Amino acid sequence: MTFTLGIEFKLHVFGESHGECIGVVIEGCPPGLLVDINQIQQDLDKRKPGGSPLVSARSERDKLRILSGIFEERATGGPITLSIENLDVDSSSYAKTRYIPRPGHADFTAAIKYKEFNDHRGSGFFSGRMTAAFVMAGGVAKQLLNNHGIKVFVHVIQIGTTKTKKKITVHDIEENVYENVVRSADIGTISSMESEIVKAKEDGDSVGGIVECRITGIPVGLGEPIFDSVESVLSHSMFSIPGVKGIEFGSGFAGSRRRGSENNDSPIIVDGKIEWSKNDAGGILGGITNGAPVIFRIAFKPTATISKKQSTVDLRKMQETTIEAKGRHDPCIVPRAVPVVEALAAITIVDLLMRNTFISHKGNGGSRSAR
Amino acid sequence: MTFTLGIEFKLHVFGESHGECIGVVIEGCPPGLLVDINQIQQDLDKRKPGGSPLVSARSERDKLRILSGIFEERATGGPITLSIENLDVDSSSYAKTRYIPRPGHADFTAAIKYKEFNDHRGSGFFSGRMTAAFVMAGGVAKQLLNNHGIKVFVHVIQIGTTKTKKKITVHDIEENVYENVVRSADIGTISSMESEIVKAKEDGDSVGGIVECRITGIPVGLGEPIFDSVESVLSHSMFSIPGVKGIEFGSGFAGSRRRGSENNDSPIIVDGKIEWSKNDAGGILGGITNGAPVIFRIAFKPTATISKKQSTVDLRKMQETTIEAKGRHDPCIVPRAVPVVEALAAITIVDLLMRNTFISHKGNGGSRSAR
Amino acid sequence: MTFTLGIEFKLHVFGESHGECIGVVIEGCPPGLLVDINQIQQDLDKRKPGGSPLVSARSERDKLRILSGIFEERATGGPITLSIENLDVDSSSYAKTRYIPRPGHADFTAAIKYKEFNDHRGSGFFSGRMTAAFVMAGGVAKQLLNNHGIKVFVHVIQIGTTKTKKKITVHDIEENVYENVVRSADIGTISSMESEIVKAKEDGDSVGGIVECRITGIPVGLGEPIFDSVESVLSHSMFSIPGVKGIEFGSGFAGSRRRGSENNDSPIIVDGKIEWSKNDAGGILGGITNGAPVIFRIAFKPTATISKKQSTVDLRKMQETTIEAKGRHDPCIVPRAVPVVEALAAITIVDLLMRNTFISHKGNGGSRSAR
Amino acid sequence: MTFTLGIEFKLHVFGESHGECIGVVIEGCPPGLLVDINQIQQDLDKRKPGGSPLVSARSERDKLRILSGIFEERATGGPITLSIENLDVDSSSYAKTRYIPRPGHADFTAAIKYKEFNDHRGSGFFSGRMTAAFVMAGGVAKQLLNNHGIKVFVHVIQIGTTKTKKKITVHDIEENVYENVVRSADIGTISSMESEIVKAKEDGDSVGGIVECRITGIPVGLGEPIFDSVESVLSHSMFSIPGVKGIEFGSGFAGSRRRGSENNDSPIIVDGKIEWSKNDAGGILGGITNGAPVIFRIAFKPTATISKKQSTVDLRKMQETTIEAKGRHDPCIVPRAVPVVEALAAITIVDLLMRNTFISHKGNGGSRSAR
After folding, report:
1. Contact D15 A81 (CB under 8 A)
2. Would you call D368 an interface residue with chain B, using a CB distance cutoff of 8 Å?
3. Among partner residues B146, B353, B363, which is closest to D149 by beta-carbon distance?
4. Above 90 in pLDDT, residue D364?
5. Beta strands in A271-370 (DSSP E)
6. For position A51, what pLDDT does the model report?
7. Contact A287 B250 (CB under 8 A)
8. B253 touches chain D (CB under 8 A)
9. Chain A residues with CB inside 8 Å of D19's CB?
10. What gap in Å lies between CA C173 and CA B177, rounded to an integer?
């Protein structure tokens, strides 16, 4: 796997930032799924550049094209191929970075690993634009999850040093996130988050941040021991997003400072069903979902590309030099990452859901869901 | 993949805590590797229970057995199968947890996912004892890495609320970690870490902690875009260790609060070779190693099993009850996790190393290493 | 995959002919399957050497050992590990073949591919003894199939130039195959098949033959387009048996000489259900089962190892020489292959059955069997 | 795997016969490969319908489009995506076959497995047109093989009951195959093969045939024991071609009637190198290439779709009926299969070649080719 993700519900992504298109082949979608193309287009629009002063000036329509797998509006059972074209391509600023890597950027490793053959324009397949492929596939995954009553909620909880203050409900996320440019569910912190980004931009600099994801309606029993715990597969997916450098589930790093009596969640019985006293486990015990919402947070480093002067090297001449990056870049990618995290979380949960079903040992020809 | 890890260098683990044995089949080891069995036995001994008052009282010899794949002391190219027997088995305390899950533990999810068929004794294949399989396979992986000049250093940097204070060098790790029971490289913090564990134990409670891993001598170019970044595959591996709830690479969560100009590392030229001004990237750019040491930290939650009374449910009667866990458990698994993290890191890096080699496009029949 | 077969129901085989043991790890067995160990032991006994003058004189008890995955007689959902020990090991005759390959044998390719590291004793992992691992795993698979009403029937239809004459029913196979040493379902051809083998043995030579497999009770819809057709996956499995050099489904090579109007099978309606006018398709249309029995035949070459003098080369001296093979070999492996074909067919069908089940697109949490 | 083939050099095919396009994503092509697009277009042209009275009247330009992975005429190391559009689409004749399956055709199994969601037009992804995707990917594979001195030769050796008579050399294949419409290398049999097809067509019927493939220049050591023998992976690939019902390697079915002393090939020394006395093994011993050309033959059943009246069933009404198939079909697909077999053989050998390379156990950072 490299351009492929998933075991049962599989993605194969292709394309480059300044090539013909960005696309994805989805294998494993059950035949008969009604695929709402408008819904997927809306998800793409949420990720699209050019929408606010806080993001890249690149202007792309990102119009969804269906290349295969959908017939009479439904999944056929064959591979679903979706793509968007690259239209607003300006490769002029990249001639330089081909040999003079931007600090903190994949320029260096791409040039070594793929030599002169790497399509360096717009960072080729190392571009953040590749995440549009995740969003397209995530659109299909979300429609599957929806049919199973599972929902994914994502919001920004930190931009630079500004954090959300109030306790956020899923209702807050649903109502507020896509109503503001920083994708915060806490209305009170929007303006200070926005100003962190604006100030960084004015300084020719960038900022990082933290995104939180909550997945509700999830059945007990998803996740596979030993090596495909929910944490393993979700983290594997999330670190595929450029700029992610950390992830924690439930109480995470804070929990490592606690005692067991404080950190353990107790099962309780509510209306004859098992629920949990609290959710420090992030909905996962022994790598397997326990029925509580799956909760994780991911840390994004500040965007590597900045216009401030930085020291670097010229790989041809093998001498030190400086660079002031040009091109159209986001001073903070965290808000645009929100629909991407949502998509990858949905894709990963669908895969776990499909892996959790197997034929009965009793010969009834059916399947056995964990609950 | 569930009991299988890796693409080129693959592990298939098997066994249960109170079954016949714990074992691992390793596929993909190059023929000819000299396998030093004593070295692997020493690694197993470092993970073994029964060695100090801080760990489980279970007493196991954990004597390594070779079932296949080694001939005249070298790898044959076939699957290498290694195992240890389970000898000191006492399943008496587990009859209860079969239906009365310990809070924070896999008891609950295992009972739902695998129903009454789960081998609940000693937590079956959810047991931390399964990590002995990682250590055995890691022993083989480390011998391969050693031949490539790559080394893995792991140490405990936090137990409960006690952190290491001084800046740790790899020399400190090499010298100190296995000389003290808490696996700290900072001699000054050993006693307070130890007392955190002892106090928790006295209280019938447990503590968590943080482990850091550094991998040196790593070539530029390991890691596969898009979905098998170094971060993706290492986190996938690390979350296979029971109790891990967070991971961060380089500056990680702290980096998310910074600006790009501060967080970016600049390449510099030292003696005609590229090095790095600092290492906030944790040795990884665009998901691919940049030649600097790979650095990550993982957060362990406090051990779920404690002898303090906790509320839980009886799954048969579907009513609330309490539990005071018996059995032989570690008040803190963090020190014993050190050789496990070391093993899994080695296994994962070997896999990336083997994936990085491909036939030439020019027909010389050879391979192309990234550098 | 190399020592691994299957996608959902997976085998990982290990061991060598003269090493410690031969074993298999089975991943994907549904928890709760009642595993009848005696049944598997009986299957092993059918494959065992030493049973008749027609087969190798090696005498092995082949006593089944369970290393993991079975608890209270049922599958736990974890990996099932089964093994047999190698007891009657005599490696003396192999010192020679390490450098002087037997014509027609893997000696040559093993020595080149694995160099001096290959465990050449008894042909190491190239030994036919590895097929005992298939039989062990097949025993588990057959118990699963049995619960789904699927049965596998295998019989020898040709030894050397002697073919079965009468039309064979599955009843003939069930009644006769394991009642005679050549594994023929046609009682009238047993003695001439037997004499083909005896004569070859007397001449220090060997013979080949053909085995037919029929799988009944199979549902419509197994097999995955495009690359995992039933023919693709069954042939992939069957060519894993040493000595297999050809396979054909339904009318096979004979069908290639026909016209479509003759070769096509027509669906008919019998008691309100679809059946087929005849079965030249071998139960497979478009790579997918059509409900008729799956039928295929596989061609075995004559055993490579013979005691007659043959010309070969000495790989160390790089000069031509001759060899008269010693050791305990079968003059015809075809009869002993019968339980092996049965096992691999069962394993492959179980895998296809498990792959055919997926979550509903409608959210009912269940699965969708093809019929 | 279903729409995916390969381990290191991977294909993901997509599209439908009457959908937007047919395409393929290729993962694993080494960066730097010079990709000659004209060469691939020529291969596509050899498979294209509409070229002779013997083949389907569907007229498609099959103009190759590059969607990703090629930059400055060379492979980038990212996924290479190639496609052709479907232009001459006429779905009118398929409304009927949606519920009234053609005997011998995937119509029936597709309708059961994928229910009403199957894109039945032109047989959707069950169409022979999908093999254009193999040809596109094969074009890339052949350029890689070419750089390694490996060549693939394919020719028709039987159409219906007409077989080639003379002993064919690779020179004959190279010179003659694409110079005649039946793809025979034996000029003397062209006209009788052609007349078999013409007569079948006149009768509203179809014929089958046999194709032979020879792969030269192949190194010793390709193929992976136990489950990925050269025979296993090549047969897996070949049965992905619609209509293939049998395969044999070397002496194949004929060899099963022989004695070992006759069938075994002896190694000999020619100019200080090992060659083989003859090639009944088809270049494969113990599942691994022995340096002799890999040789196999595949049997194609007669085309299922014929215009003669045949009995079948109406799946909606569940009653028997008859069908006289309309539409544009090949009376014999065997000649058009030649470039498809060539492509899949090339793809499979490249994959084996890439799998045969691994890092040294000695730490030289390089690879170890088997020879």
Report:
1. yes
2. yes
3. B363
4. no
5. 273-276, 284-285, 288-289, 294-300, 310-314, 319-323
6. 63
7. no
8. no
9. 67-68, 71
10. 66
Q: Which residue of C233, C259, C321 to mutate against D (max D Cβ within 10 Å)? A: C259
Query: Residue C129 CA to chain centroid, in angstroms?
Result: 12
> In chain A, where are the structural domains located?
4-355
Best of D218, D357, D364 to substitute, by most chain B Cβ atoms within 10 angstroms, is D357
SS3 C238: helix
* Contact in structure between B211 and B336 (CB atoms under 8 Å): no
Q: Which residues contact C222 (CB under 8 A, 6 or more apart)?
A: C230, C288, C289, C349, C352, C353, C356, C370
Please give the DSSP secondary-structure letter assigned to residue A265. Answer: P
Out of A316-330, B73-87, D71-85, which region has the weakest mean confidence (pLDDT)?
Answer: A316-330
Q: SS3 for B74?
A: strand
Residue written as token pair 């509320």 = B311
Say which range, A44-58, B174-188, B288-302, has the weakest mean pLDDT.
A44-58
Rounded CA-CA distance C71/D368 in Å is: 44
Mean predicted confidence (pLDDT) in B325-331: 80
Residue D182, φ and ψ in degrees, nearest 5: -90, -5
Question: CA–CA separation, C305 vs B41, rounded Å?
Answer: 40
- As a dihedral over the C-alpha atoms of residue B155, residue B160, residue B164, residue B170, rounded to 10 degrees, the angle is 10
User: In sequence order, what E strands does C261-327 have?
Assistant: 267-270, 273-276, 284-285, 288-289, 294-300, 310-314, 319-323
Q: Which of D225, D281, D319 sits opposite C2 (nearest CB)?
A: D225
Give the separation between CA A136 and CA A141, rounded to whole angstroms.
9
Q: Is A3 within 8 Å of D77 when comparing Cβ atoms?
A: no
**Contact state of A318 with B106 under an 8 Å Cβ cutoff:** no
| CA of D229 vs chain A CAs: smallest distance (Å) | 22
How far are the Cα atoms of B10, C6, C239, D221 from residue D233, in angstroms, in the given order? 20, 13, 9, 14
CATH number for the A4-355 domain, one of 3.60.150.10, 3.90.550.60, 3.30.450.20, 3.40.50.410? 3.60.150.10
- For the stretch A174-216, pLDDT in tens is 999 999 999 999 999 999 999 999 999 999 999 999 999 999 9
Stretch among B56-60, C2-6, D239-243 having the lowest mean pLDDT: B56-60
pLDDT tens digit sequence for D151-203: 999 999 999 999 999 999 999 999 999 999 999 999 999 999 999 999 999 99
CB C283 within 8 A of CB D234: no
Query: Do residue A301 and residue B210 have CB atoms under 8 angstroms apart?
Result: no
Question: Tokens 């008496």 label which residue?
Answer: B92
Considering Cα of C18, then C20, then C23, then C25, what sign does the dihedral take? negative
Backbone phi, psi, residue A69, to 5°: 90, -5
Contact C66 B14 (CB under 8 A): no
Please give the single-letter amino acid code of residue D148. Answer: H
The strand pairing partners of B288, in sequence order, are B285
Of C274 and A58, more confident: C274
The CATH code belonging to domain B4-368 is 3.60.150.10
Cis preceding linkage at B84, omega within 30: no
Cβ <8 Å between C76 and B14: no
Answer yes or no: do A229 and B250 touch at CB < 8 A: no
Q: Is B313 on the interface with A (CB under 8 A)?
A: yes
What is this model's ipTM? 0.96
Measured in angstroms, the CA of B370 and the nearest CA of chain D are apart by 10
For residue D332, give every residue at least 6 positions away whose Cβ sits within 8 Å of its Cβ, in sequence order, or none. D54, D159, D160, D196, D197, D200, D206, D207, D208, D209, D302, D303
C233 backbone dihedrals φ, ψ, rounded to 5°: -75, -35
Query: What is the pLDDT at residue C203?
Result: 96
